[in-house]
Amino acid sequence: MKTVLIIFKKELIDSIRDRRTLIAMIVVPLLLFPLLISISSNMLISQARKAQQKTLKIAVLTGGIGNRSIHADAFERSLAKRDDVELIKGITENEGKALVRSDSLDAVIVFDLEFDDTVADLGQGVITMYHKSTESAGIEKGRVRNFLDELEEELQAERFANLDLDVSIVETVTIKERNLASTKERIAEEIGGLLPYLIIIFCFMGSMYPAIDLAAGEKERGTLETLLTSPAGRLEILLGKFGVVMLTGLLTAVISIFGMYLGVRASSEIPPEILSAILNMLELRSVFLLLSLLLPLTIFFAAILLSLSLFARSFKEAQSIINPLMIVIIVPAFVGLMPGMELNTKTALIPILNVSLATKEIIAGTITPFILAEVYLSLIALAVISLIYCKWVFGRESTIFRGT
Known about the structure:
This protein has 404 residues and is mostly helical. The protein has two domains: 7-45 and 184-400, no CATH class; 55-161, abc type-2 transporter like fold (3-Layer(aba) Sandwich), CATH 3.40.1710.10. It has 17 helices and four strands.
């Protein structure tokens, strides 16, 4: 054990001296999370504010060829009184649609040619709204839809007044929605998948550079052979190197969580109730459970990365072998972001995906002990298998001295 600690200390000092390791382990996760939170929150709030304050360009038309609809004219006059609406006149329906496609017009509202007669006959008048639906244009579309909803309410009230009836006669059911999900659960649903996605990637990156340097890097520098001639056994050497790679991966994950905490605390644009819920997610119990999941995952990362790095002849070759592995890590972590993905007895057995989904439920506070235990067993089994494989790779002379 003493020999392992000596090798661990030696390899740790060598890793700390490597600028790439320090940047991947400390600088990137510590600065990236606050930067991402600050930029994303400011951009979202800024875009929402611009969309709410934007002067909407709207054209009100009557479909077909014929007289203008009386209701269309009345609706157009009501919009003309608004300071936040600019009416575009003198265009056809096809011209309006072209302008919407080119983002020169926010909406074209077309009243059916028979709209007035249909409404007068107590029917449902048809209005077509042309808009360009993108995520950023959702607020503008909602504002235009509100104008049409107000028109519908006015016509409905007028119709019932003419019939000497109370509008409430058609309201046979009153539905009251009460969302019982806590703010913490709702936020966890929104950002709970993104958090483990980033942490898993940082954990992998934090392990990657030390693994390459302590295996392929030493082979390239010729210092691995010197280490093998020392009194330390191969298993002791491997455990010393493995311990450093695992430690840097875990530290990167911890620093990324701390960076997110700093980013949330520093953001002045997040509403107080949401800020409180996010900070509650980062309570000690949640962080402890998250790190306990990352421990066997990091063991897996460290073992696989060391195995691949030992196979390479040089630092550059190790990078070319390991970089494609990032795709294998990203895909299951990304799947955890998809709507409808839930942690169950099947997904709990899928490596990386189970960590992503379990983290989401830990943050929301809805994780069940049985499923969590299944995730642990799956990850521990994966870690043990990867360690055995790494030991086998390090024991092969053809691998250690490949290319020398």
